[in-house]
Amino acid sequence: xxxxxxxxxxxxxxxxxxxxxxxxxxxxxxxxxxxxxxxxxxxxxxxxxxxxxxxxxxxxxxxxxxxxxxxxxxxxxxxxxxxxxxxxxxxxxxxxxxxxxxxxxxxxxxxxxxxxxxxxxxxxxxxxxxxxxxxxxxx
Length: 139
Prior knowledge:
The chain is an alpha+beta fold. The chain has 2 helices and 4 strands, in the order H-E-E-E-E-H. The strands form 2 sheets. Strands 1-2 form a two-stranded antiparallel sheet. Strands 3-4 form a two-stranded antiparallel sheet. A hairpin with a 2-residue loop joins strand 1 and strand 2.
């Protein structure tokens, strides 16, 4: 694998993980949003990652990092909370709340942070190797 290709792969992962962090932050920020422009409560958003494939080299397909293939809304139904005094309550007194579990979001955020940190480490190691390679011929 080429040195700059490994840096590009790590950089693509950093970009994807940053978007994932942004989505998780948005989910947590909207945990109590009961009214959106589309109507109904806010829906949890998740990033769908996909491997970016490059060309075939010596008969093998070489990976070229990761990309965000899509940002999708979770399919789980909203949580129905009984609160007849809420302005968005239905005729039975239930409010449709976002389908977000803050504990799951925090676990996802920790996982995303760890993946981001791992890719920063790989990027720094690649940079260090490149610098060491440049100093090989020096006396």
